[in-house]
Amino acid sequence: MAKVSIKLTKSVIGTKPNQRKTVEALGLKKIGQVTEKEMTPQLRGMIDVVQHLVEVKEI
Hints:
The chain is an alpha+beta fold. Helices cover about 30% and strands about 25% of the residues. The protein is built from 2 helices and 3 strands. The chain has a 3-stranded antiparallel beta sheet, with no helix packed on it. It starts with a strand and ends with a strand. It has one domain: CATH 3.30.1390.20.
């Protein structure tokens, strides 16, 4: 599996509760915070839910 870098680029203020929980489940709390994860189908789905809040790059 490929590794991806996920960066929170926008605030979760004003977003739906499920989007906030998804961002938290990705391991992101603050704007600009970056986490690295293995790309899985589950992770792809989580990224799709919050694609307007995060930036994803393959490593």
